[in-house]
Amino acid sequence: MANKSLPGKLIVKSGKFVWTTMWQIMMSQLAPGNKSGAYVRPESQLRNFINTKPDNIYQPEANRYRLYVGMGCPWAHRTLVTRALKRLEDAIAVSIVYPSPDAGIWVLSQPELGCNTVPELYQRSQLGYQGRSTVPILWDDQTNTIVNNESAEIIAILNSEFNQYADRSDLELYPESLKTTIDSWNEKIYHTVNNGVYRCGFAQTQSAYEQASQELFATLDQIDAVLKTNRYLCGDRLTLADIRLFTTLFRFDIVYYGLFKCNLRRIRDYDYLGAYLRDIYQLPGVAKTCDLESVKRDYYGNLFPLNPGGIIPIGPDISDLQEPHHRQR
């Protein structure tokens, strides 16, 4: 009896149908979108603050609070950069968590408070919590509760509320005179760059991807033009706006350019953005917060719908980040 096999066309069509269906299911869980297929990031839910107000249970103290961070996560990376620049290492502890490629959650490197995973930490803090279990987390060791899980607010807290314990208390990253400008940059950069790269990578339709990509590179072009005459976004001093942009720029050529299809230009292709990235990377303590291998592993190894084979690229070489930037000119 002659060996008969399925026609190649049928195999391809069947495989494409099955994979597309499964991809849509997985993407709906990984990155929920709207009707146009555009990714919509859920808002953080735990938004308490540390300050000296008499009625606030979260008072500034050294060795009371800790950060839970994933080294590959740009949102968590912001808190590490701020902690390093303010020299708060002796006052604020850090616990590293890792993504589980099978469970799709963050897991602790070792059990803490009877918890093995970040979702368990959230339940320990607030029984019955139903939101996303994300990092970074600003945790209070005294009450065993989560103070805040919104990175933009955590870095503002680290900047202003622990100066008595900071070796760089003189470093003001959110000065009153620049708040309006900083807030304006933060709003634009969040939507089109910080979250913009995710809107590109997690888009589920061509039109949603193209819109996100156009907005992303329009903003990068605008920033590059500003950096022609400004050392930093708001002039000659570093601010929280720069920190929020930096952690996305650090990952751009490494993962967003390829994996997220943000491939119109690399950051190193820009006349001024590339040097600006090197400038911040070379600030004291910042490079130690930048974990290249964790970034590649967490993105390429764990975002299965975007990289089903799980193959992690051997590059890129980021030694150029140590080259002179000449931004002081």
Secondary structure: elements and pairs:
Layout: H1 8-30, E1 65-70, H2 74-86, E2 93-99, E3 106-112, E4 115-117, H3 118-125, E5 137-140, E6 145-148, H4 151-160, H5 179-194, H6 196-201, H7 206-226, H8 240-256, H9 273-281, H10 292-300
Parallel strand pairs: 1-2
Antiparallel strand pairs: 1-5, 2-3, 3-4, 5-6
Structural class: alpha+beta
Which sheet architecture does the biggest sheet show?
A: 6 strands, mixed
- Counting DSSP E segments of at least 2 residues, the number of strands comes to 6
| Share of β-strand residues | 5-15%
As residue ranges, the low-confidence spans are none
Oligomer: single chain
Summarize the model shown.
By secondary structure, the protein is α+β, with helices and mostly antiparallel strands. Helices cover 40% and strands 9% of the residues.
